[in-house]
Specification:
Helix content is 24%, strand content 22%. It is of the alpha/beta class. The chain has a single domain (9-269), classed as 3-Layer(aba) Sandwich (Rossmann fold), CATH 3.40.50.1580. The strands form two sheets. Strands 1, 2, 3, 4, 5, 6, 7, 9, 10, 11 and 12 form an eleven-stranded mixed β-sheet that branches. Helix 3 links the parallel strand 10 and strand 11. Helix 1 (69-78) runs parallel beside helix 4 (188-197) and helix 2 (136-148) packs across helix 6. It comes from uncultured Armatimonadetes bacterium. Phosphate binds at residues 15, 55-56, 187. Pfam families: PNP_UDP_1. Residues 9-249 form the Nucleoside phosphorylase domain. The record marks 168, 227 as: Important for substrate specificity.
Length: 270
């Protein structure tokens, strides 16, 4: 239909990212997998149409293990989105990665359970590679924009994704630290992988809000993480993150040649 809304870029983030933009249009998307977390807000940024969707819902009513990740990613695809920017609040597993820093992850480790994490239940068997789960073109772009904006950035890192909503024990956290992983989060999986299944380029921007429990005592002042602390640090860095995201959209590179956009055919037995 002629009036079907379209967007090139999708951002999983709350209303803080688009509340200052003019001419925001909200649309309700139906998917085969049920409703997304909220209505999708469409707005123009740098001459491109962008779709904003709060993964936890506008009122943050959906905990990580209750998010309908398939519906969220499908909603983006149905709008024509080819590139997704996925900012989220994360904990640090290494003392050199500090609150306020951004990490552009290149790997994930899945420690979740029971989440619907594929679109492909047959009859065509589909094995999508996740050896390199994030789009290399968008990752390089994100690092460059962070440096341009004067934001402290780590250009790679492994995020371990836990089930939530509880935070890790010290023992769990020290186990993750001992593996050399850098970031801990509750929402990166299966969000990033589902985007890959639909051949959407995806980049993660991990906003470090706290040190994880295993680092307690490693440096003075490191205390057990609280939800209030996470919210306070994320809010304090909102303007910085908004600048990075909007600049990424304005200067978005062509990702049509990315392996993230062209791998599904080789993943199928048909």
């Amino acid at each position: 239909m002629a009036d079907t809304p379209r967007a090139q870029v999708g951002i999983f983030g709350g209303s803080g990212f688009y509340s200052l933009l003019p001419d925001v249009r909200e649309v309700k998307i139906e998917t085969p997998y049920g409703p997304p977390s909220d209505k999708v807000a469409l707005a123009e940024v740098g001459g491109r149409q962008v779709a904003f969707l709060p993964r936890h819902g506008r009122d943050h009513s959906l905990p990580p293990h209750r998010i309908n990740y398939r519906a969220n990613v499908w909603a983006m695809k149905s709008l024509g989105v080819t590139d997704i920017l996925g900012p989220n609040a994360c904990g640090s597993l290494q003392t050199h990665i500090k609150p306020g820093h951004l990490v552009i992850c290149d790997q994930f480790v899945d420690r979740t359970s029971g989440r619907e994490d594929t679109f492909y239940h047959g009859p065509i068997t589909t094995h999508v590679s996740s050896a390199d789960p994030y789009c290399p073109i968008l990752r390089e772009h994100a690092v460059g924009v962070c440096r341009e904006q004067g934001v402290e950035v780590h250009e790679r890192g492994t995020v371990v994704v836990i089930q939530g909503p509880r935070f890790s024990t010290k023992a769990e956290s020290r186990w993750f630290m001992g593996q050399g992983w850098e970031v801990i989060n509750m929402t990166q999986y299966p969000e990033c992988y589902l985007a890959r299944e639909l051949e959407i380029s995806y980049v993660n921007l991990s906003v470090i809000t706290d040190y994880d429990a295993g680092l307690i005592g490693e440096e003075p002042g490191i205390k057990p993480v609280t939800n209030e602390q996470v919210l306070a640090v994320f809010t304090a860095n909102m303007d910085k993150l908004r600048r990075v995201l909007f600049r990424m959209v304005e200067a978005l590179p062509d990702t049509s040649g990315s392996p993230a956009r062209n791998h599904l055919k080789s993943a199928r037995f048909d």
